[in-house]
Amino acid sequence: MKKTNISITCMLAVVLLVSCGSPSSNTSGAGTWQSYSGDRNIEKRVDSVLKLMTLEEKIGQMTQFSANWSITGPVMSDDFQPYLEKGLIGSIFNATSVEGIRRMQQIAVDSTRLGIPILFGQDVIHGYKTIFPIPLAEACSWDMALMQRTAEIAALEAASDGINWTFAPMVDIGRDARWGRVMEGAGEDPYLGSRVAEARVIGFQGGAGGKALGELHTLLATGKHLAAYGAAEAGRDYNTAELSEHTLRNVYLPPYEAAAKAGVGTFMASFNEINGVPATANRWLLTDILRDEWGFKGFVVSDYTGINELIAHGVAEDEKHAAELAVNAGIDMDMTGATFIKYLTQLVEEGKVSEKTIDTAARRILEMKFLLGLFDDPYRYLDEERARQNTMTPEFMETARKAVAASVVLLKNDNQLLPITKEKAVTLALVGPLMNDSINLNGEWAGLGDRNKSVPILKGLTEKYKDSTVKLIYAEGSAITETSPEKIAGAVSAARRADVVIAAMGEDFNWSGEAAVRTNIRLPEAQRALLKALKETGKPVVLINLSGRPLDLSWEDEQMDAILQAWFPGTQGGHGIADVIAGDYNPSARLVMSFPRNVGQVPIYYNQKNTGRPVDLTNESIDYKSSYLDTSITPLYPFGYGLSYTTYTISDLRLDKSSMKAADDKIIITANVQNSGTMDGEMVVQLYIRDLVGSVTRPVKELKGFQKIPLKAGESRQVSFELRSEELAFYGIDRKKKTESGSFTLWVAQSSDDNENVATFRVE
Q: Is residue 511 part of a domain?
C-alpha cells in the first residue's frame, strides 16, 4: 500500500477547510501550551489523523522506545525496528545526533502508512551541551529570570540537535538529603518550588515574552515525578511514600499544580506508591486531581518501565494486567516497557479498556506533535549548521558563568577571610581532589555536556589571578576517597608556604542522582584527614564543597575559617567560583534545603509542625519535649540562609491594615532594607507567615514571598509585598482548600530563622 504523507498532503485535505499552516501562536505567556483547548484548527487536524488510524496505530502513538547508540548512530534491537517501520512508535528517547534522528524520522514519515512524525525526547535536566549548575544549586540563586534563561538555552541547544521533548523540570519537594535526586529539584519549600517550576517550564517551552508556539528553540517540558517521589521512606529511591492527604496536598502537590498552570505539556508518573497505590496505577492522582481538578490537557508518560514494575509492587498479576491498570488510571504513553503495544489491542477486544480511552490518549499525543509543528515540517528541528551555531556560544558561556556565581552559597566567613581580591599580596595554596578536576563538575544528569570541557577550579583561579599580586601553589593532597601520607605531606608543605589555603572537596558526581542514596553524608575520611592536616598548619582554610546534596558539615563548620557551598556547578564552574572568591561577584545565594547537623536529623526542614510539646530553643535540655539528647533540633544551616561580603539590615516593617477578609482581600507589607556594608550586593528578602490556629495543625513558618534586589553599599530601599487572602488557603479538616479566619504572625526576614522583624494580622 502506498503510504499517505500527512505532512505533505495536509491529512489528505480531510475536512477541507483545515489549514496546513503553523499551529496556533497564542503568545499570552504562562499557560501557552494549554491554549490549544478549544482551538478548532488543532482539533480538526487531530480528528483527521485519528479517522485514518487503526487501533494498533493509535496504540503505537502511546508507545515509547529508547534508542541505543553506537558511534555512528542508533542500534535498534530486533523488537525496535519492526515497530518503527510499521509506524507503531510515538516517541523515541536517548537519540543524540542530528543524523541519527533524521534517519529515524525519515523511516516514520516516508516509509510508514500514515507518515506520522516521531517525538524525540532526552533528559535535558540542567543543560544540554552547555551545562549549568544542578537545579538544586540554581534554585539557591532565588533568581527566576536566570533559571528561565538557562532553561531557554538548554532548549535551544537541544532543539537544534533535533530533540523536541525534555524530561524536566523535576518539581518534587525534597526534605531528605540522603535521597540522591534532591539535586534535580528546588529543595524543601512548596512556595519556592512552585515559582521555580513555573520559571523552568516557561523557559523550556518558550511560553513567555510573546514567543509563538512551535518556534525552533522550543522543547516540550515534563513535570515530574507525579507525585511525592521526594517523600520516599528513608530517602531510598523508588521506595514507598506514606503520607496523609493533608501533607500530600499542602506540601507535595503545589509545585506540580504550578507546572500545570504554567502550561507544561506533559507529566511523568512517579515510581513510588502513595499510601498503597503506585502512582502509575493511581487514577485518583492522574485523572481526578491532575485532569479534573487542575484542568491539565497534555499527556502523561510513565517513568522508565514504570508500568512493568506494577507487578513487583504487587498490584498487577502480569504485564497485561499492568497495562490495563496504567491506561485506565490515566497513563497515555508507556516509556520503554512495551506493555501497551503488546497488550492494549487484546484488552480493548476483551472490553477491559475502552477504545475511547485509546482515542483520548492518542489524541493528546498527536495534539502535542501538532503544537510542536512536526506535522508541518517533521525535520524543522534538524539542522547541523544551526546546531553548530547554537552550541556553547559565548553568550551561553557568559550566562553559565553567571549562574555558577549566583548559585554559590557562602556558609561561613570568619574574619572576612573572603574575598581575596587581586590587589592582595598573598600566596594561596590550592589543594583537594576537586581543585583540578573537570570530570565531576557537571554533576549527574548532565545531558551531552563534555566533561573534559568543564573549567576546573584551578584553571579558573589561575586565570583570575594572572598578572596580579596573588600567587598560587597547587598540591592535590588526596583523591575523593583515598589519600596517602605522601600526598598529605605535599599539601601541608604547600600550605606552610602560603598565607591562605583553599581546599576543593566533596562528592563524586555519581554519588547523587537517580539510585544514588547515601546514609553517610559527610565528606569521605580521606578528605577529612587532609583537612585536619591543613588545619594543624595554623593557616586559615577556605573549604569549597562540591556536592549534589546538603552534607553534614558540622566538623567543617567548627574547624574551617570559610566555607563555600558550590554544588556541582557545570561547564563554567571554575570561572564562576573564581569570580566569587576574588570578590568580582558578591555571593547572593540562599539555601533551599536545610543542612543537617548529622544524618540522624534527616529529614529536616524549616516548615515543620510545632507539636504539643515544642522545644524552647533557648534551653533545649528541658526534659519531656520533642528534642534530642545529643544534638539540637535546629539545622546546621537553615532554609533561606546565606552570607554575603556585605551586611544587610531590615527595618520599619509596616502593614497597611491589621486585618483582611478571607476572600478577595489583601494586605500590603512594606519594609526598609539597607546594604549596611561596604560592598555592592544582592539581597534576598523573604516573607514568612504563621497561621496560629487552624482546623488542622499549621507549620511554624511558611514562605509566602521573596524578592531579590540589588543594593549598592550604603543604599536603602523600600520593599513591598502583596499578601492576598487566597495565598493563605490550605486543605483543612474537610479536605477542601480555603482560607480560614484567625490570627497570623508575619516576618520580613533574611532567612527562615530570622525572627527580628515581626508583625501580626487577622483574617476575619
A: yes
- Number of other residues whose CB lies within 10 A of the CB of residue 51: 11
Q: Are residues 15 and 143 in the same domain?
A: yes
232's torsion region: left (phi>0), alpha (psi -120 to 50) or beta? beta
Q: pLDDT, tens digit, for every residue of 663-713?
A: 999 999 999 999 999 999 999 999 999 999 999 999 999 999 999 999 999
* 25 contact partners, CB below 8 Å, separation of at least 6: 212, 213, 214
Q: How far apart are CA 14 and CA 52, in angstroms?
A: 10
In a domain, 628, yes or no: no
640 belongs to a structural domain: no
Instruction: Based on the fold, state whether residues 580 and 497 are members of the same structural domain.
Output: yes
Under a CB-based contact definition with an 8 Å cutoff, are residues 234 and 256 in contact?
no
Q: Quote the CA–CA distance of 583 and 410 in Å, as a whole number.
A: 12
443 and 369, same domain (yes or no): no
User: Catalytic one among 123, 143, 189, 303?
Assistant: 303
Q: Where are any strands of DSSP class E within 123-189?
A: 165-166
Total number of residues shown for the chain: 764
- Cα–Cα distance for residue pair 104/394, rounded to 1 Å: 32
Element (H, E) at 747: strand 742-749
Residue with cell 524549616: 606
Q: Could you list the residue range(s) of the whole structural domain that residue 403 is in?
A: 396-601
Calpha distance 628→642 (Å, rounded): 26
More confident position, 265 or 99: 265
Question: Any idea what the CATH number is for the domain that residue 518 is in?
Answer: 3.40.50.1700
- Do both 358 and 425 map to the same domain? no
Task: Report residue 639 as a C-alpha cell.
Answer: 532554609
CA distance 376 to 367: 13
143 is catalytic: no
Same domain membership, residue 469 and residue 356: no
Tell me the pLDDT band of 390, cut-offs 50, 70 and 90: confident
Residues 370 and 414 both lie in one domain:
no
- Name the least confident of 23-27, 254-258, 404-408: 23-27
Report d(CA 342, CA 323) in Å as an integer. Answer: 9
User: Rounded to whole angstroms, how far apart are CA atoms 27 and 40?
Assistant: 17
Say if pTM beats, i.e. exceeds, 0.90: yes
50 is a domain residue: yes
